[in-house]
Write a structure and sequence with these properties.
12 helices, globular, single chain
Length: about 250
């Protein structure tokens, strides 16, 4: 196991946990740059998501920033789609092509939120629409197919729709990622294709557990989230474009 990869996983978990994310997109990007087997990538990324956002859910709930009813409404409908997505047979070439597109879109959404989004004011009427359930289902399908928990897609969508405050959206996304990651793992396990290598994944899981616990306790002001999100977007964009070119 590469010490450098453990350090990078620790850093990703620390930074993402403060915003309610698991870091699945960045874990996949890093493992792709290390040329890890694609089946091992998917299961490892989902496992890392679970251990990181479990602490995040607890943190946001205790802080009063987790509207659990709305979080479950968005998340539960996505579970069967995450299960189906993980169950779909994908060849390695197709997986990397899909992952390249997913990472590139995720990076562009992050850049939009960072640089183009105007002053953010929540719209109380946004919570009454059912369109977010459809969006959640689509993201669940994609998360199951690629090993991304989906929060990196859901957060910009909710912010564009002015669904709630930024902190409550982060809390909602933490629940969404946790439920979808578990659904994705169950789908892989049900078809006997979940790949777990303790020698490889063990040090990475320990790294993200420690990083996630530290990140969940740090304030966003300390971590300067705009700089963090900008650097993360560049990493994800680089990995996504590289996969598309190689594919």
């Amino acid at each position: 196991m590469s010490i450098e990869l453990c350090i990078l996983f620790f850093t990703v978990a620390l930074l993402y946990a403060s915003a309610g994310f698991g870091g699945g997109s960045s874990y996949l990007a890093l493992m792709a740059l290390w040329s890890i087997d694609f089946q091992l990538m998917k299961s490892t990324a989902l496992l890392c998501n679970v251990v990181v956002v479990t602490g995040g859910v607890y943190h946001f709930y205790r802080a009063g920033q987790l509207p659990m009813k709305r979080a479950l409404q968005l998340s539960v409908i996505s579970v069967p789609f995450a299960f189906v997505g993980s169950y779909l047979p994908l060849k390695q070439h197709t997986f990397f092509l899909l992952l390249g597109v997913a990472l590139t879109v995720a990076a562009l959404l992050m850049c939009y939120k960072l640089f183009l989004e105007k002053e953010y004011v929540p719209d109380p009427n946004a919570q009454k629409t059912y369109k977010y359930g459809i969006v959640g289902a689509a993201i669940g399908l994609l998360s199951g197919m690629t090993g991304i928990g989906g929060g990196i897609y859901l957060s910009p969508v909710l912010r564009l729709g002015r669904y709630d405050t930024a902190k409550k959206i982060a809390g909602i996304c933490s629940v969404f990622i946790l439920i979808n990651s578990i659904g994705g793992l169950l789908g892989q396990a049900s078809k006997g294709e979940i790949v777990f290598d303790l020698h490889f994944a063990g040090p990475l899981l320990l790294s993200v557990i420690i990083g996630g616990q530290i990140g969940a306790r740090l304030s966003a002001a300390v971590l300067k989230p705009r700089i963090v999100e900008g650097a993360t977007a560049l990493l994800i964009l680089y990995a996504g474009v590289r996969m598309l070119i190689q594919g």
